[in-house]
From TrEMBL, chain A:
The keyword GTP-binding does not apply. SUPFAM superfamilies: Glu-tRNAGln amidotransferase C subunit. This is Aspartyl/glutamyl-tRNA(Asn/Gln) amidotransferase subunit C. Residues 74-98 are annotated as: Disordered. GO terms for biological process: glutaminyl-tRNAGln biosynthesis via transamidation; regulation of translational fidelity; translation. Belongs to the GatC family. Heterotrimer of A, B and C subunits. Keywords: ATP-binding, Ligase, Nucleotide-binding, Protein biosynthesis, Transferase. InterPro entries: Asp/Glu-ADT_sf_sub_c, GatC. The keyword Protein biosynthesis applies. The lineage of its organism: Bacteria, Bacillati, Actinomycetota, Actinomycetes, Kitasatosporales. Its EC number is 6.3.5.-. It catalyses: L-glutamyl-tRNA(Gln) + L-glutamine + ATP + H2O = L-glutaminyl-tRNA(Gln) + L-glutamate + ADP + phosphate + H(+); L-aspartyl-tRNA(Asn) + L-glutamine + ATP + H2O = L-asparaginyl-tRNA(Asn) + L-glutamate + ADP + phosphate + 2 H(+). NCBIfam families: gatC.
Length: 98, 497
């Protein structure tokens, strides 16, 4: 199993949308490496003919009739928003200049 | 008035129903206790004084009108800050939700209100329920009422500490890897992780969806059962909610008995890493079960040795996905939105500022385990281990009615002792995790004090899925026998605060 490098942690942080500080990168690299080292033994069972279990219950799609029911009002749904405008969530720019 | 806080939930409900005391008096007594001791304990993140008194007044009015009261009407409760409560702060112990007022109630919150339970406030917890010590709360740690310099367990340390400090007779916790049972064990209280799907997860902030389970915390087995019955049951708003009758847990708690039962001792839950005093109390509990008429069988569950490893891949993987919703767009904190930054940058800056180290660690661990190239080796393999653990349980329950083990390998450790060593911290959940992976039910109840440090030890009872009533039947028998032996409930040996 490969060790986790500082660069790898930086990459993971980008994927996870975490703007980590430099000292955090160093700190987490060591800790993640330790944790991964300790949990890697699960792969010892990987070759066996064992089906994976993703959930303790057999999951089935739960449907209900497509009927309009009372729900949150727009005011309620927006009540926790950091910014709002014209009954909508106001977000920073999503597309770049180009 | 001081006596009111020492009563059990069942006793309080009976006194209110009989008109010997009002719900307002009971609520005021607990609010006064919180005011007197919570500065030291820090079990609560938010005390909803007005809301609690309003609910209590409604119960008293209902009684005066001669209306039928529920079995826990007027009984105060401490609610883990992971369940949404309309108009009351819900932070999950995190800065990212500081100041958020949910516009709706969780199904569990609704059920408590409908049952006329008085919600005193929200209890402290490890951020997003990630932890075994309540040290990861963004709002500071909770102290263990047995020794305030020690951890009260985690992640539901606030809920269990509130019980042990007599700030509330009932509390609610959630158990993803042991977060109800482990705090119960180290605070000398009772905690139950019901069968996965027995209590709705709607409105409970998700950490690891296939493992998370809400459940009751109390000072007695009967109180836990009464609360279990109030919060369990099918919920159409939760697609993983079990659509089947709730097992007769209250009846079981009232008729504790182990005569003729076959009880399995899990061989893998002993040995290295287990504190001597914990093992001593556990072995005495097994002896007690034998004296009470149970047949004791040694059971081997070889895959349990890999449960911790599987858990620390599965839980972070699901958390990295669940916590993606904290994106600074729809609710919660937003940092760095100065008009020049993109939404993506604002999200990253907000998550950096809003999440604590344990949450970041797990989000990154999960991102790693799910990333292309590592998925099969880590997440995929962990799910295979999950299958093996489920099979171990199935085989065990062909031979025995319930399994028993210590709840935790050690008693409460000092605050700060394991803070910089994640793997040492994770060991606290060694005995509780297999049950979350398999989805079955388990309880922790006090079985004495470890001789070397005088701190509580928990006995864990594990039952098959949907056989939650067995936990209460065995638990009530053990509790009655121990209480008779000690001459009083264990908690009375705790130092006064």
């Amino acid at each position: 199993m490969p060790g986790i490098t500082r660069e790898e942690v930086a990459h993971l942080a980008r994927l996870a949308r975490l703007e980590l500080k430099d000292e955090e990168l160093d700190h987490f690299a060591g800790q993640l490496d330790d944790i991964i080292g300790a949990v890697a033994r699960v792969s010892e069972v990987a070759d066996q003919d064992v089906p994976p279990t993703s959930h303790p219950l057999p999951l089935t799609n739960v449907m209900r009739p497509d009927v309009v029911r009372p729900s949150l009002t727009p005011e309620q749904a927006l009540s926790g928003a950091p910014a709002q405008e014209q009954q909508r969530f106001k977000v920073p720019q999503i597309l770049g200049e180009e | 008035m001081a006596d009111l806080i020492k009563l059990t939930a069942a006793e309080i409900a009976a006194k209110i129903a009989a008109g010997e005391v009002t719900a307002v008096e009971v609520t005021e007594a607990h609010l006064a206790r919180i005011e007197a001791v919570d500065e030291k304990v820090h079990a609560f993140l938010h005390v909803d004084r007005e809301g609690a008194l309003a609910q209590a007044r409604a119960v008293d009015a209902k009684r005066e009108r001669g209306e039928k009261l529920g079995p826990l009407a007027g009984v105060p409760l401490a609610l883990k800050d992971i369940f949404t409560t309309e108009g009351v702060p819900t932070t999950v112990g995190s800065k990212i939700l500081e100041g958020w007022l949910p516009p709706y109630d969780a199904t569990l919150t609704k059920k408590l209100k409908a049952a006329d339970v008085v919600i005193l406030g929200k209890t402290n917890m490890d951020e997003f329920a990630m932890g075994s010590s309540t040290e990861n709360s963004a709002y500071g740690p909770t102290g263990n009422p047995w020794d305030l310099t020690r951890i009260p367990g985690g992640s539901g340390g606030g809920s269990s500490a509130a019980l042990a400090a007599y700030e509330a007779p009932l509390a609610i916790g959630t158990d993803t890897g042991g977060s109800i049972r482990q705090p119960a064990a180290v605070t000398g209280t009772v905690g139950v992780k019901p069968t996965y799907g027995a209590v709705s997860r709607y409105g409970m902030v998700a950490f690891s969806s296939s493992l998370d389970q809400g459940g009751p915390c109390a000072r007695t087995v009967l109180d836990a059962a009464l609360l279990h019955e109030v919060i369990a049951g099918h919920d159409e708003l939760d697609s993983t909610s079990i659509d089947a009758p709730v097992p007769p847990v209250v009846e079981a708690a009232r008729n504790g008995d182990v005569k003729g039962m076959r009880i399995g001792v899990v061989k893998e839950f002993s040995g290295e890493g287990y504190q001597a005093g914990v093992m001593q109390r556990f072995n005495e509990s097994v002896e007690l079960l034998r004296e009470l008429g149970a047949e004791i069988v040694e059971i081997s569950c070889p895959s349990f040795d890999m449960a911790l490893a599987a858990y620390y891949l599965i839980a972070p993987s699901e958390c990295s996905s669940n916590l993606a919703r904290f994106d600074a767009m729809r609710y919660g904190l937003r940092v760095g939105d100065d008009g020049t930054r993109s939404a993506e940058d604002v999200t990253a800056l907000t998550r950096e500022a809003g999440f604590g180290p344990e949450v970041k660690r797990r989000v990154m661990l999960g991102t790693y385990a799910l990333s292309s190239g590592y998925y099969d080796a880590y997440y995929g393999s962990a799910q295979k281990v999950r299958t093996l653990i489920t099979r171990d349980f199935e085989k065990a329950f062909e031979q025995v009615d319930v399994l028993v083990s210590p709840t935790t390998p050690t008693t409460a450790f000092p605050i700060g002792e394991r803070a910089d060593d994640p793997m040492a911290m994770y060991l606290a959940d060694l005995c509780t995790i297999p049950t979350n992976l398999a989805g079955n039910a388990a309880m922790s109840l006090p079985c004495g004090l470890a001789p070397e440090d005088g701190l509580p030890v928990g006995l864990q009872i594990i039952a098959p899925a949907m056989a939650d009533d067995r936990l209460y039947k065995v638990g009530a028998a053990v509790e009655a026998a121990f209480t008779a032996r000690w001459g009083h409930p264990l908690l009375e040996e705790a130092p006064s605060l």
